[in-house]
Design brief:
- The strands form two sheets. A five-stranded antiparallel sheet has the order 3-2-1-6-5, with helices on one face.
- By secondary structure, the protein is α+β, with helices and mostly antiparallel strands.
- The protein has two helices and nine strands, in the order ααβββββββββ.
- The chain has one domain: minor pseudopilin epsh domain (minor pseudopilin epsh fold), CATH 3.55.40.10.
- A hairpin with a 5-residue loop joins β5 and β6.
Length: 146
């Protein structure tokens, strides 16, 4: 009586070889990245930092600034950790952001929630994200820039 259930050793080896080739292709190409996704993530991180600065200004009852250095692709809240943007991502800070030392631009939040205002553009061409800080309310919004 012959048993026909299960897989033969050859079938198992063929499946393992195919899985190994597929794994090699995936690892060889590296992680999949999307420039649009990176851009939206960077805009979200910068917007969240601006919102946190506004909250600190309101809670601490003192002015809090966010320094944005477009030349070196980084930003930070007063005395906070410096966050880095992708080095190949174009960054520009538009008025009414305040000038800081060198290329640094500042967006300052007051204890009443208002801000100096400003607009930050990340990216270039068709894939661009704009972060707007309203001067009267300090509201931070993110949108695809046209």
């Amino acid at each position: 009586m012959r048993r026909t259930d299960g897989f033969t050793l050859i079938e198992i080896l063929v499946v393992l070889a195919i899985a190994g080739v597929m794994l090699g292709l995936v690892i060889g190409n590296g992680p999949m990245r999307s420039s649009g996704l990176q851009l939206r993530a960077a805009a979200g991180a910068l917007a969240q930092t601006l919102r946190a600065a506004r909250a600190q200004a309101i809670v601490g009852d003192h002015d809090v600034s966010v320094a944005i250095d477009p030349a070196n692709h980084r930003f930070a809240i007063d005395g906070g950790p410096v966050r880095q943007l992708a080095p190949d991502m174009p960054v520009s800070v538009l008025p009414p952001a305040l000038p800081g030392p060198g290329p640094v631009r500042l967006i300052r939040f007051s204890p009443d929630g208002s801000a100096t205002g400003g607009r930050i553009l990340l990216g270039a061409g068709r894939s661009r994200q704009g972060i707007t800080v309203e001067w009267l309310t300090g509201r931070v919004s993110v949108a695809g820039a046209q």
